[in-house]
Specification:
Structural class: alpha+beta
Distance between the termini: 56 Å
Strand content: 35-45%
Helix content: 25-40%
Largest sheet: 8 strands, mixed
Low-confidence stretches: 1-24
Strand order of the largest sheet: 1-2-3-4-5-6-7-8
Number of strands: 8
Length: about 180
Amino acid sequence: MACRRRRRRGGILCRYDTRYGGLLCQAVCVGGWVMLEYRALRVSEWFGRACDLAEAHRLETERDFSAERADLDLAAYRVLEESGAAVAFGLFSDGALVGYVSGFVVRHLHYDFVVAQHDLLFVEPRFRKGRAALRLLGLFEEEARRRGAVRILYHAKPDSVFARLLERTGARCEEFVFCKGV
């Protein structure tokens, strides 16, 4: 398949688009050395193979929230996936999952329109140079729009890299989420 070449920060970026499971999939090779592939996935099928990645995510972003390893409610994810509410994309390098984005697309509970709610975004640190996280967000947003969402709700830690990234993409702070133990 033909690549369109572009210079990106001193390296060559090749990209092509293809279809995967009816959803957009993008593959990127940087400098001819690393092949990154973006594809739709089901959280319920991949979580068992991504426990170490999920733990790295927890340690980096949620260490203060829980001292325990992530233990997803896979039955709930399956219900959301089967209903069409769950959206997830993975970033793969040589077949290994190295990043992900997930969320949900549902009718707003208070208003007659569809919203998307971001759940998770994480990319292994060694794959953060470039636009991997932005591409994952872009795929999530594109699929949310395709499913009828008119707004996407994100949650981010105050003053985090992710919060600054969201601001640069045009998102604005709508409200705060407070957390306390009970």
